[in-house]
């Protein structure tokens, strides 16, 4: 396994992140535990979850699955860099969502209870809260850190401007601030390259891509359809993407076949090759899917292949592959 520091922090994390969104929803608890055990066998130490993941809203069932796995002992918790999230609704009453000091305190304590642990390694804001001032958010987060309940803080689905706001507010209070940003990022969705990724690099945040294969569209979906196998990519977003970009996906799968590699592994390897990316989140439903994803760490894409991928999936910059403001200024 390869490891890197999470952003500018001293925290060492695996370059593949185990996503747990399927645990309890599509994957049974027994199989979820087996996947986590196998992840540790492979050296994957970075697990990502959220308080809203699970079978139904407000239950926190995925966190409960992780908690029961940690409770088995054997160094499971000690070997894991545990990341969870706060923001989305956990109930219908006021203050059961967003980033008020009250909800942050209650949500953190509830996650700790479900996870059966005394601290969260990385506590992430699942979304920007435009109604709560940064002074309130950072004060609430600092209390959690002083109490030893949280070690590091991260963001998710932030714009570059939001990252700047957060970091400057933290700087004014002499806080470490954010160490990571979790964004949608894959070959088909490269908008973060305009401002989010440059902001993350400038402020020392590690980027953690979610939806790395665009819901299975970049995972060999056409080949699987031809072979009659079950393929992901049934969400509205991925179905529309496949219909709109079928020719591009066909060319992509041919390129991967010429390389002798699975499209899913190439998609992950491309993300791993991007400057500022800590590691993509893989969301295996089976142990076999987890095992297969490790191939991405062994693939080193040459310049010709990277250029071809840029041709197939151009960066969203009118003046070429450049970050903002160069993308739309001179």
Automatic annotation (TrEMBL):
Listed CDD domains: AKR_AKR12A1_B1_C1
Gene3D superfamilies noted in UniProt: NADP-dependent oxidoreductase domain (3.20.20.100)
Pfam families: Aldo_ket_red
Residue intervals of the NADP-dependent oxidoreductase domain: 15-312
Record-linked SUPFAM superfamilies: NAD(P)-linked oxidoreductase
Name of the featured protein: Aldo/keto reductase
């Amino acid at each position: 396994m390869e490891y890197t520091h999470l952003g500018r922090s001293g925290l060492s994390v695996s370059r593949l992140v185990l996503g747990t969104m399927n645990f309890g929803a599509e994957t049974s608890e027994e199989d979820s535990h087996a996947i986590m055990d196998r992840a540790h066998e492979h050296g994957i130490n970075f697990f990502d979850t959220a308080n809203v993941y699970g079978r139904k809203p407000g239950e926190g069932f995925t966190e409960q699955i992780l908690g029961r796995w940690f409770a088995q002992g054997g160094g499971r918790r000690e070997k894991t860099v545990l990341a969870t999230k706060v923001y989305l609704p956990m109930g219908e009453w006021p203050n059961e969502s967003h980033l008020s000091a009250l909800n942050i305190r209650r949500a953190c304590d509830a996650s700790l209870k479900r996870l059966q642990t005394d601290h969260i390694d990385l506590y992430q804001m699942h979304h920007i809260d435009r109604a709560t001032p940064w002074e309130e958010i950072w004060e609430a987060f600092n209390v959690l850190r002083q109490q030893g309940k949280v070690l590091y803080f991260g963001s998710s689905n932030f714009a570059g401007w939001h990252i700047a706001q957060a970091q400057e507010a933290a700087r004014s209070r002499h806080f470490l601030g954010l160490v990571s940003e979790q964004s949608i990022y894959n070959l088909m969705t490269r908008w973060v390259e305009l401002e989010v990724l440059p902001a993350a690099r400038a402020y020392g945040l590690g980027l953690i891509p979610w939806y790395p294969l665009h819901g299975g569209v970049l995972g060999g979906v056409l080949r699987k359809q031809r072979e009659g196998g079950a393929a992901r990519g049934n969400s509205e977003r991925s179905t529309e993407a496949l219909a709109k970009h079928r020719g591009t996906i066909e060319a992509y799968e041919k390129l991967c076949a010429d390389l002798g590699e699975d499209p899913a592994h190439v998609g992950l390897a491309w993300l791993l090759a991007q400057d500022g990316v800590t590691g993509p989140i893989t969301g295996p439903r089976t142990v076999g899917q987890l095992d297969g994803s490790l191939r991405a760490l062994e693939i080193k894409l040459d310049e010709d292949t990277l250029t071809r991928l840029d041709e197939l999936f151009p960066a969203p910059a009118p003046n070429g592959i450049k970050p903002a403001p160069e993308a739309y200024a001179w």
